[in-house]
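Question (not urgent): is this output format expected?
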Amino acid sequence: MADTKSQPKEEHGKPAFLLAFATAQASIEGAEKDGKNKHFGNEYTTLKSCWEACRAALTENGFSVIQGGKKIDEQWTLETKLCHSSGHEEVYHLPLLLGKNDMQGLGSAVTYARRYGLCAIVGVAPEDDDGEAAAKTGVAKIPQGISPERDGRDLHQQAIDLYRALENAPSMQELDRLYNHGPNKKVMVKLTKEGETEKKQKIEDLFNTRSAVFQQSIDQASADVANLNATVN
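Got this back:
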């Protein structure tokens, strides 16, 4: 029989943490798209909606979430801790990438990171209306940033479609492909020429934030595989 008295409190509490988390996840719901981007008109999932999707399930099973800034290797990150009454906790770090080096830029980065950090650590999935519609029709509804010469859309609509495409990109490769796609690069250049710097900045902020999220997931997956190989071997 294992000597549980000699184990650190955190490790002793891990089985209870995992059991309670499995129970909590069974009740966690999808987060609704309850916000609307005033610049692009698209709907998105707010931090409030993410919390509403998981708050009751977490608190009923002894969990709390703590978020705050932490500097790791000269990089500021948003630290999200999922704590359990057993004493065990799990920690997730997300880089804070600022589109603008001021308080507004910091606030935007922190809000994004709090939302993504919370969803990632507890398993909240935002409702994907576009994805559900695509599944029904068999056609992926991800706009490709076609130039106005080909379909007559104005620059504002192109910016909206590019933003939505980046927001719904399922992978790092798709994100890069969408952002660096010929017509989309032309949209970014044209936004600059037309003086639409705020719209251009919103698109760049989204791209940079999503890139950081994907990279964090890739790094975590690589570390998990390495740990598994080390355990098996």
